[in-house]
Amino acid sequence: xxxxPSGSGALSGTVDDIADAVIVTDADTGEVVAVNDAVxxxxxxxxxxxxxxxxxxxxxxxxxxxxxxxxxxxxASETGSAxxxxxxRRRDGGTFxxxxxxxxTTVEGRTCLVAVVRDVTDRAERERELERFAEVLTHDLRSxxxxxxxxxxxxxxxxxxxxxxxxxxxGVHDRMADIVDxxxxxxxxxxxxxxxxxxxxxxxxxxxxxxxxxxRDGTAGLVVSGDLGTVAADPKRLCRLLENxxxxxxxxxxxxxxxxxxxxxxxxxxxVEDDGPGIPPDARERVFEYGYxxxxxxxxxxxxIVAAAADAHGWDVRVTEGADGGARFELTGxxxxxxxxxx
Length: 343
Hints:
single chain, 9 helices, five-stranded mixed beta sheet, Beta-Lactamase, Heat Shock Protein 90, six-stranded antiparallel beta sheet, 3 domains, PAS_fold, alpha+beta, transferase
């Protein structure tokens, strides 16, 4: 860490191991107090030069960044951290999108903002592509889906027999409609569960697994370990959450995957674990990002939908390593219920 002459030696060495650029500024004046060596890789300016730099030197819209930084300071003071995005300028004049993750700290009585700054140009472009894809999915597919649903109703009224197959076809249409709704939810930012229902998790897990793995060759396996309990949830969003976790396991491990769902020892959630190669530690935070995928056929929506559904219920989700080295997703904050308040 490089302190400026006006900075405090107490900051030295605290963030040197962070690969992303770190800029510490005085919360009141905006004066740069300290930076790490990564700022040179990101902005092109030597660390010592940041002492004399203002936002005008490395931000395309410095006034907007000052406002965003002030908002982030207020939010971070209340919640512990905040993020905002802005367009940065390198020393050579090139521009790129960055995300600042801000926290507030006090050093020798001086309130400072610690900003971890990351280049998110590629991620921002993926998000724009996914937003365009979402538009196609939510608009262009809705009309043919409605037409297909109407054809099923016509067949029910005019044909004799085949009700079982029509029921299955209707179920497929319902799942497609729910996926379209999920994408619309992500795009519109609607993350609130209005009227939860009392859901038996064992039943929900087994039903969702049957929908995901039912058409495969039977080699994929599900193990439900113990009583998962009953929670208050939106049944469709809970189904999408589980469905995306199961599909993620099948997509990355293959049809021979075994997925184990078990209650957490604290009694406030469940774990969904596969027996695949797992997720590297440095990718575990990114897997929930909008558009992030390592699969060649992936859209980048799946685990983001999981995170959005969990957040809508007030639950937390994290990924860690399973007992056999596979991916283990832990959902916490799932308070068990006997009955809903209105029952």
